Amino acid sequence: MATEESIVVTKEEVHSFVIRSMEAVGLKLKHGTVLADLIVSAECRGHASHGLNKLEQYMNEIKSGMTSTEDLEPSVLKETSATALVDGPYVARFCMDLAIHKAKSAGIGIVSCRGSNHFGTAGWYSLRAIEQGLIGMAFTNTSPMLVPTRAKSKVLGTNPLSLGAPAQNGDSFVLDMATTAVAMGKCELKGRRDQPLPTGWAVDQDGHDFNIDDFKSKSRIAHVLVPHSYIIQLATLLLETSTLPITLPVEMCYPKYEIS
């Protein structure tokens, strides 16, 4: 078991480090600043799984070409007084802020987007609504991680969701959760710390629990705690989708994948 030592780093230092790291792989300052805001918020709210833990992943995705660094702006494809359809890149914060603007003028704001996937902590977006005195909800798909009940292959994403509402005296309610048994980032943290994965977190191709060495080599998250609850992933996918027919995460990432 790896020993841990606590090192205190100010949030300003973390913010600056994230920006410099992203600039080093070609991301523009304004976009790196938004990511730094998100990562610092995750760390300060106790979500280490979605804080600096994710920085290496984000950098590698840019290096591999999976994530674009083009200095483009989101475009609104369709729009009404209360709804909008937006195309990427850099859409997540843009969509939430647009939904907030519409909610203030029309009473409700619903914005869906294309060109998006993992977007950090879902609660960060709901908090933006709370700051404006509104109820906020945020959903996204992710790369395929979930092994549905009685299945062996990962098909759906962790598809996180968040709901936030302001309360009295500056308090608030914030639900921020993966719709799998656990968020991928928490498995990653266990791997970094050489800690065992709890039973029911991840499974191998035969449906057996992974140990930490297996997880490091090939991860699949299994929702085995509540039978059939992968329907929640499908519901989340429906809520955040912008086109029909729906494309499953496994089809997005592996175009030649055959579902049987």
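The above is record 1. Record 2 follows with the same two-line structure.
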Amino acid sequence: MAVADSFKLPEPLIGASAGYAKLLIGQGRAAEALACARKGFEATEDVRQPLIMIKSTTALSDAFSANGMTDSALVYSKLSHAWRDSLTGLQNKSQLQNQLFTQELKDREDAKLREEEIAARSRNIQFGIIALVVITLGIFLLIFSRTSVVGAKAIRNLSLIALLLFFEFINLLLHPFLDRVTNHSPLLMLLCMAAIAGLLIPLHHRMEHWITNMLVSKNNRVRLEAARRTIEELEARPNEHSGT
């Protein structure tokens, strides 16, 4: 207590005074306890923190009570209760602020999750549309290759477009997966994309050659078959006329 007083440290002085006053009361040295408690209370002029004020006013109330000064003891007892109420109010306010802050963080997190869900749903819908377009184009290619209406050049161009869309669709599907695997590292992404391109480009050329030739050959056979039937029909007509 003497050290705190000599260095003008109010908080340690108040705490030490309250503790020492309680000790003196226990020893029956009520007058010394009152002097000590008063000294601690005087130091509270520069410190108005609830916990410190509760400690100081309680010690002073107990010291007055030990000296038989009930009126003064009651005054400082009420003052101690007032500071306790103030502390409770501050704690409740702090607790309310913490609850509001926690709720705000939760609301922000929920909003972020909703936005991510909407973005993921939109992305899935777009992927579904792209897949539907690619499949539809493939079906049309198969249908056109079996008819004599569309020529070989149109079949070849449509097959090139369908393959291009198909491989770009694969790239789109792989991109989010690569993002997660590489942890969004540009260098790793570049290396992975280069490796995938090294695999897909030769595959693309082979499939392009095979599918285009297959569809064009089938279309040519259909066109030849249609031409043969047309010629047979034309040859059959003069015979019908001569027979009549």
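The CA atoms of residues 50 and 171 lie 65 Å apart.
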